[in-house]
Amino acid sequence: MSTEALGDLSAQDLRARAAEALTRARARSVALTDAVDDEDLVRQHSKLMSPLVWDLAHIGVQEELWLVRDVGGREPLRPDIDDIYDAFQHARADRPELPLLGPAEARAYVKQVREKAFDVLEHAPMEGRRLTEQAFAFGMITQHEQQHDETMLATHQLRTGDPVLHAPEPPPARSGALPREVLVPGGAFTMGTSAEPWALDNERPAHEIAVEAFWMDTVPVTCGAYTEFLDGGGYDDERWWSLAGWAYRQDNGITAPRFWKREQDGWWRTRFGVYERLPADEPVVHVSYHEAEAYAAWAGRRLPTEAEWEKAARFDPATGRSRRFPWGDEEPAAEHANLGQRHLRPAPAGAYPAGASPTGVHQLIGDVWEWTSTDFHGYPGFAPFPYREYSEVFFGPEYKVLRGGSFGTDAAAIRGTFRNWDYPIRRQIFAGFRTARDAAPGEVG
Ligand code: AVJ
Ligand code: FE
């Protein structure tokens, strides 16, 4: 569906689309929390994460705040728990100590909120307020739930014990031989969006920005390529690391990506409770920004800027226009990208020829979030909407932008303009990277 087409949907169609998206998100939240027993739901599997039962009730509280109370103007269901589930009031490490709703209570609560939210959806006008224009609030809450589902998936990866999640294997590489890198032409392009109905505040507004011609890796850096850096002593050679990166590596004794282990016969990893040999052709995942940056320096390259990433993903040289996705304006389908936890791992490099961008860059959407070298900031003309705490309070040099989504990101929560951010030391997220380099003066594309 094109942006314009969504803009033309009738109120009835918007309601159906919102209901379908909310229902799909809920099925995923239920599957992620039903997969483990109650004891496991209330446990903290890592100081970096909330207990799963916190995420579940927090999803409900956010939905109550925006859909039931604000859009619907209805009475609060549980005003007494607002504070407990306010992410700004309590750090993740402290959440197990809170008087949380238990598993049964949390499940009943989110169900009750959803019934009210659906009632609001049926009656709310889809215009008149910016919050309801094109069902924005429903799209925002769908994305919020899907984002927490990805966070819960990361919690699953940190939990120890037998595997409880299952999914089919991703498709094999099927692109044929790909060039190592492709040239993305220099010049202005449209970054961000003012037209995408469910785009969040930090993706707005659309603006023209110029980038110099550059070379971009055709596919994300694979485990095989990363192992060369590792086995070549890259983690012990200060030359490749930034000052902050080297301090991080030293202070934390970082010697390989998270979840990797060296055995007699090479590198192995733990993935959702399965211990397995590392697949050489799969994009590397669970690396920090610092590790990505060091690898790029070792390879004689650099990380792409956020603008370069978006130009590679959206710019169509034939029309001069920016697409919604690398493959065009249609919503992601199974042949385009590895999204939505359809598979429990990134797909091999070359698995998605139908998802390539016009300039020939593959797997920009799905598989692994990609670190960019850009700090998280608002675009020119940024306006917080509907609340400062979604994006604006995170603007600044402490956070790096990640792009493209991972195998754990749902299609509802990703597009060519979508921006994620995290601390450069984080590696429990499904993050990898690709590298870039400046084009030489003659190579202008
Ligand atoms: C956009 C993924 C950084 O999980 O911290 C969830 C999304 N905001 N609840 C996060 C979010 C509020 C956010 N990220
Ligand atoms: Fe949240």
UniProtKB/TrEMBL annotation:
Lineage: superkingdom: Bacteria
UniProt keyword annotations, A-Z: Iron, Metal-binding, Monooxygenase, Oxidoreductase
Cofactor: Fe(2+)
Pathway terms, separated by semicolons: Amino-acid biosynthesis; ergothioneine biosynthesis
Pfam families linked to this entry: DinB_2, FGE-sulfatase
An annotated Gene Ontology molecular function: iron ion binding
Keyword presence, DNA-binding: no
EC number, UniProt record: 1.14.99.50
Catalytic activity line of the entry: gamma-L-glutamyl-L-cysteine + hercynine + O2 = gamma-L-glutamyl-hercynylcysteine S-oxide + H2O
All residue ranges annotated as the Sulfatase-modifying factor enzyme-like domain in the record: 179-437
Domain DinB-like: 21-152
Binding of gamma-L-glutamyl-L-cysteine, residues: R92, A93, D94, R95, D422, R426
Sites where the protein binds Fe cation: H58, H144, H148
Family as reported in the entry's similarity comment: Belongs to the EgtB family.
PANTHER family, per the entry: HERCYNINE OXYGENASE, SULFATASE MODIFYING FACTOR 1, 2
Functional note: Catalyzes the oxidative sulfurization of hercynine (N-alpha,N-alpha,N-alpha-trimethyl-L-histidine) into hercynyl-gamma-L-glutamyl-L-cysteine sulfoxide, a step in the biosynthesis pathway of ergothioneine.
Name this polypeptide is given: Hercynine oxygenase
Record organism: Amycolatopsis vancoresmycina DSM 44592
